[in-house]
Design brief:
By secondary structure, this protein is α/β, with parallel strands linked by helices. Helix content is about 30%, strand content about 20%. Strands 2-3-1-4-5-6 form a 6-stranded mixed β-sheet, with helices on both faces. It is globular, with a radius of gyration of 17 Å. This is G6824 protein.
Length: about 200
């Protein structure tokens, strides 16, 4: 009985810190998203050279969130951060139609990486406050998200400046990592669940 209670408490109040890698092209709003999640407010940011990392508390879960620089010369280094990643947040500027194909190519490249095969993928369609922003349906089509069969994914409309949609996205990630923890407790030797298409 004590073991069951201990397992239940571990599920409800896990000590583990989950790792999230946040990627996207430069000027997509990654750093604004990170500090909105970390501090609860918008801050003035500079282009990220290398990475920023902060601990983000969401409900009873702790996340170590890595914001990686999105300039073209920095993208090849993203893969050095992928090991032990539980979830990937891909932040996309919903108004940047000219580079949508580049964002798509970077997304599909990272999905092939061996360390991300079990990671949940959250696409944040950022800058929804701007009138020329692509909506979620349009962005889903532009990024060919329905072709993703091997990953659990979700696309969330967001505005990093106001925080709109960010907690909805974190809730989706929280449900995924808690589900994985519960599955591991039920059957530590079991194979991972087959990803569910969003």
């Amino acid at each position: 009985m004590g073991q069951l209670f201990s397992s239940l408490m571990q599920y409800l109040f896990p000590n583990r810190e989950y790792k999230i890698v946040m990627v996207g092209l430069d000027n997509a709003g990654k750093t604004t998203t990170l500090y909105r999640l970390h501090l609860g407010e918008a801050v003035v940011t500079q282009p990220t050279v290398g990475s920023n990392v902060e601990c983000v508390q969401y409900k009873n879960l702790k996340f170590e969130v890595w914001d990686l620089g999105g300039q073209a010369n920095l993208r090849p280094s993203w893969a050095t951060y992928y090991r032990a990643t539980d979830a990937v947040i891909v932040v996309i500027d919903s108004t940047d139609r000219a580079r949508a194909s580049i964002a798509k190519a970077e997304l599909f490249t990272l999905l092939e990486h061996e360390h991300l095969q079990e990671a949940a993928i959250l696409i944040m369609a950022n800058k929804q406050d701007l009138k020329d922003a692509m909506n979620v349906k349009e962005m889903t089509d532009v990024l060919s998200l329905h072709s993703l069969k091997r990953h659990d994914w979700h696309i969330q409309a967001t505005c990093a400046k106001t925080g709109e949609g960010l907690m909805d996205g974190m809730e989706w990630i929280a449900q995924r990592v808690k589900g994985e923890a519960a599955q591991a407790m039920r059957s530590p030797q079991a194979s991972p669940a087959k990803p569910i298409a969003a």
